[in-house]
Design goal:
By secondary structure, the protein is of the alpha+beta class. It contains eleven helices and 13 strands. The chain has four domains: about 60 residues, Winged helix-like DNA-binding domain superfamily/Winged helix DNA-binding domain (Arc Repressor Mutant, subunit A, Orthogonal Bundle); about 50 residues; about 90 residues, SH3 type barrels, CATH 2.30.30; about 80 residues, Alpha-Beta Plaits, CATH 3.30.70. The strands form three sheets. Strands 4, 5, 6, 7, 8 and 9 form a six-stranded antiparallel beta sheet that branches. A four-stranded antiparallel beta sheet has the order 11-12-10-13. A hairpin with a 5-residue loop joins β2 and β3.
């Protein structure tokens, strides 16, 4: 049998999770009658917790918005999930302020029940990760300002530095923030270029939110746009290869931000810009599927040279084996 205080706290937890529940829904979840539900709600209100009752046929109970609630209550599994999430953010470099992550993690760990703390300690002691790419972190203020501008559809003026070091002032309509492969990106409409562009957040400075709004495109695929833009970045060589596999398999084998794909009869056309043909040749061999080079012709020469080197290495190993025996 539950203690009444436990049920009162359960009402608060349910309203925190669901925002709004009817009296019958609360009664069913707590296995009590409606009169008891009303008594529990009154007890919460007496404690200063803003539970509002909505009258009428479709009425119910909800917590008043923008009210600062007492400390959150987590189940053991929820506390473990929060802790693991903070650990993952720290290891992946997803947090723009490492001190904030460490502080939050320390606070949570201090109040964890002993069994949960032991589970977390076991994971910390045994989990090994390898994130070779060091993320380029934007400033916290920049991330907050650009996220707020995107959420409120407000135009922004920025100073953007190109990869070559040139700085330009841009007025943009920000569409959202994308984190991909250790970097933070901002897809936006650029009024200087009068087209959609992708900006790296670590190259943005001098942010000023303007008193101008814009209408964001409907159902804009932020991640898809960033991936396609990165795959189509100018390079010295434009490569086209037909992979003799399915579209789904090609997308599993090749990171989506490296190339674009077109399904055709007999396979999938992979298109990619690259600075060096040897790198793309090794990448194609590593894929492990048959392919046909469409362009450039020089890629075929690089593949032949690479095949010759691999064959020579195999022959040397075979000769060494025979000599040893």
């Amino acid at each position: 049998m539950y203690h009444p205080t436990t049920r009162v706290l359960a009402v608060l937890e349910m309203l925190q999770v669901h925002r709004r529940l009817s009296g019958p829904e609360l009664a069913e979840r707590l296995e009590v009658d409606l009169r008891t539900v009303r008594r529990y709600v009154t007890m919460l209100q007496d404690l200063g917790i803003p539970v509002e009752a909505e009258r009428g046929r479709y009425g119910g109970y909800r917590l008043r918005g923008s009210y600062r609630l007492p400390p959150l209550m987590f189940t053991d599994d929820e506390a473990l999930a929060v802790t693991l999430g903070l650990m993952a953010a720290r290891r992946l470099g997803l947090a723009v302020d490492a001190a904030a992550v460490e502080g939050a993690l320390a606070k949570v760990e201090r109040v964890l029940p002993a069994p949960v703390r032991e589970r977390v300690s076991s994971i910390q002691a045994t989990l090994v990760t390898d994130f070779s790419a060091r993320p380029e972190m934007p400033g916290t203020a920049n991330l907050i300002a650009l996220s707020a501008a995107a959420a409120n559809a407000q135009r922004v003026r920025i100073n953007h530095q190109s990869a070559q070091g040139a700085t330009t002032e841009r007025t943009i309509d920000p569409y959202g923030i994308v984190y991909l492969k250790g970097l933070w990106y901002l897809p936006a409409y650029c009024h200087l270029r009068q087209d959609l562009r992708v900006f790296r957040l670590d190259r943005i400075a001098g942010i000023a939110t303007l008193d101008e709004s814009f209408t964001p495109p409907v159902n804009f695929d932020r991640m898809g746009f960033v991936r396609q833009s990165l795959a189509e970045m100018p390079g010295l060589w434009r490569v086209e290869v037909v992979l003799q596999t399915t579209l789904d398999d090609a997308r599993r084998r090749v990171p989506l931000h490296l190339a674009t794909f077109e399904e055709v009869e007999g396979g999938v056309i992979l298109r990619q810009n690259t600075e060096g043909l040897e790198e793309i040749a090794r990448q194609l061999i590593w894929l492990g599927v048959p392919f046909i080079v469409r362009r450039p012709e020089e890629l075929r020469d690089v593949l032949r040279q690479l095949a010759s080197e691999i064959s020579a290495t195999a022959n040397r190993a075979e000769a060494a084996r025979i000599s040893a025996s």
